[in-house]
Amino acid sequence: MEYELLVIIGLSSGLCFVIGSWFSPLVRTLKKEVQYWRGVAGKYKAEANDSKPVKENLFGDSALGKMAEPIIQDILKDPTKLQGILDKLGVNTGGKPDDRPSWR
Predict the structure, then answer these.
(1) C-alpha dihedral sign at 66, 71, 74, 75
(2) pLDDT (0 to 100) of residue 100
(3) Is the pLDDT score of 37 beyond 60?
(4) Is the alpha carbon torsion for 84, 89, 94, 95 positive or negative?
(5) CB-hemisphere CA count at 13 Å for 57?
């Protein structure tokens, strides 16, 4: 009997707390203030995004393009890496025409 009474008192006090905080004028004021600051922050973020320069990417805005961009930039900055890749692919970057690979 006493456990049931404690459970009933606990549940009813919890319900009263929830209902009281739902109708509290302080909570309403704070909710309005939070909405105001969210609006201010949203405007600030929008202005910051508008002022960013648009960066062109070889693969566009895809996830693959975002992952591959640092690798591609690294390869393009280092001519020895670029030449190594071109040699592995068999691309003739100069020389005699008969130096081409046989699969062409």
Answers:
(1) negative
(2) 57
(3) yes
(4) positive
(5) 17
